[in-house]
Write a structure and sequence with these properties.
By secondary structure, this protein is mainly α. It has 3 helices and no strands. The chain is elongated, with a radius of gyration of 19 Å.
Length: 86
């Protein structure tokens, strides 16, 4: 019984390690922020701002990219879908 529990815990640790490595090796920003089309342009800009803050807090983008993209938001422009940083 103890061997079964140890095997289960070990396999969970290995699975967590593989998942973490896969997240580190895959490109940043695997999905895009919500478009918020129904709430208008201002709401879409606010959603994009919150999205950028989340990316920065989780280390998915660097400080220079964060500043550049926030400056674009301040000018009323969202990052186009084809442009990816990371």
């Amino acid at each position: 019984m103890a061997a079964l529990i140890a095997l289960l815990i070990g396999s969970l640790l290995v699975a967590a390690g593989v998942y973490d490595m896969a997240r580190l090796l895959t490109p940043a920003e695997s999905r895009w922020p919500p478009l918020a089309r129904l709430r208008g342009r201002r709401a879409a800009l606010e959603e994009a701002e919150q999205w950028l803050v989340g990316l920065r807090l989780h280390g998915r983008i660097d400080a220079a990219t964060y500043r550049t993209r926030m400056h674009s938001l301040a000018d009323g422009r969202r990052t186009p879908r084809g442009e990816r940083h990371g």
